[in-house]
């Protein structure tokens, strides 16, 4: 069983149980964010995962290769300021890609 009930966490009695889509991505949090946020995601099958953040013009801000992940529930935290340059306040898009799965994207708002 997979239960998602008003939280940003996955709850399951069996890792990967109930995952029907190749890649399921929950909303990033906190959103709005000061620059650091977390994304919860689930994989139906093992595979490589990558998260990219782009600005509203499509320019890449951060790309993080998470490597190969097992089937099931996972979490990734990203810091948009990790390269030493603070990103400006504004709208950004988080794109999560998994092997054999369509990319999933969502909007985040950075507030300074």
Layout of SSEs?
Elements: E1 2-3, E2 11-12, E3 23-25, E4 36-43, E5 47-55, E6 60-69, E7 72-79, E8 90-98, E9 104-110
Antiparallel strand pairs: 1-2, 3-4, 4-7, 5-6, 5-8, 8-9
Structural class: mainly beta
**What is the share of helical residues?**
under 10%
Count of DSSP strands: 9
| End-to-end gap | 39 Å
Amount of beta strand: over 45%
Strand order of the largest sheet: 6-5-8-9
State the CATH architecture: Sandwich
Mean pLDDT over the residues: 86
In DSSP terms, counting alpha (H) and pi (I) runs of 4 or more, how many helices?
0
Order of helices and strands: EEEEEEEEE
- The oligomeric state of the chains shown is single chain
CATH class: Mainly Beta
Enter the CATH topology name: Immunoglobulin-like
State the domain count.
1
Cα Rg: 14 Å
Catalogue the unreliable spans. Answer: none
Largest sheet: 4 strands, antiparallel
Structure commentary:
By secondary structure, this protein is mainly beta. The protein has a single domain (2-110), classed as Immunoglobulin-like (Sandwich), CATH 2.60.40. 0% of the residues lie in helices and 52% in strands. It contains no helices and nine strands. It has a four-stranded antiparallel sheet with strand order 6-5-8-9, with no helix packed on it. A three-stranded antiparallel sheet has the order 3-4-7, with no helix packed on it. A hairpin with a 4-residue loop joins β5 and β6 (60-69). The chain is elongated and about 40 Å long. The model has no long low-confidence stretch (mean pLDDT 86).
